[in-house]
Specification:
257 residues, Rossmann fold, SDR_fam, alpha/beta, single chain
């Protein structure tokens, strides 16, 4: 039986992806800092093929423990690490507190990097294994109002490309998802210095929300396909097109022109 471990499995993209893979016969390990969210997701999946692991991705010792625990129940298999845990922080960069900047970097990139590094022996030991990292449309072109978030997602993109090259000889496939805006709890945080949330900003800019179910199906395709990056959603597709063919227009859009 194939086995996957998904961080951020207590809600949003992580939950939706877990449901898709579980429905197709995979064993699923759910990891998240939110214990209640884990219980809620686990209730949607077969109990005999699901395990839950409360963890903070910023702590390497917790990565070590969770990976060992999951390997114990999966007979040593790790066919997929879905490195998905992340948070958003919006608003003018000059107004974001240093603590908030550190938290975004620590969760979105440091935690993801720890996962890739510490899962490597398990992935290497599982023929045909895959590392799937959640990046973002904000990794296509830096997004004004989401500067630190964009920066971490560009870092995820770079790590994905580098490891795709490094680990090919080991038989490990490395992929990323680049979804546009998903209407999850990540967008509910207030933007510093305003009365708006990130969700309000998306609506005001008349950008589309991509259904989380669409992202989950694209995750399945990414794991079973050959593209390094999988762009998901109309906004992400338009950004990718503009970044390649109309960079000046995209730059003007980010400047609010």
């Amino acid at each position: 039986m194939k086995a996957m471990l998904v961080t951020g499995g207590g809600s949003g993209i992580g939950r939706a992806v877990a449901q898709v893979f579980s429905a197709r016969g995979w064993r699923v390990g759910l990891a998240d800092i939110d214990a209640q969210g884990l219980r809620d997701t686990a209730a949607l999946l077969p109990a005999d093929r699901t395990s839950t692991h409360v963890m903070d991705v910023r702590d390497p010792s917790e990565w070590e423990e969770v990976l060992a625990d999951f390997a114990h129940v999966s007979d040593g298999r790790l066919d997929l690490l879905f490195n998905n845990a992340g948070i958003a922080a919006g608003g003018p960069f000059a107004e974001i507190g240093l603590d908030a900047i550190d938290r975004v970097i620590d969760i979105n990139f440091r935690g993801l990097t720890y996962g890739a590094r510490m899962a490597y022996p398990y992935l290497k030991a599982t023929p045909g294994a895959c590392l799937l990292n959640t990046a973002s449309a904000s990794a296509i072109y830096g997004s004004a109002g989401l500067a630190i978030y964009s920066a971490t997602k560009f870092a995820v993109r770079g790590l994905t490309e580098a490891l795709d090259g490094e680990w090919a000889a080991e038989g490990i496939r490395v992929r990323s998802l680049m979804p546009s805006f998903i209407d999850t709890n990540l967008l509910s945080a207030p933007i510093p210095g305003t009365k708006y949330t990130a969700r309000d900003l998306v609506v005001r800019r008349k950008l589309e929300f991509t259904p989380v179910e669409t992202v989950a199906e694209k995750a399945w395709a990414a794991v079973h396909g050959d593209r390094v990056h999988t762009v998901v959603g109309k906004t992400a597709e338009r950004m990718a097109f503009a970044a390649r063919w109309m960079p000046g227009r995209l730059r003007a859009m980010m400047r609010g022109r």
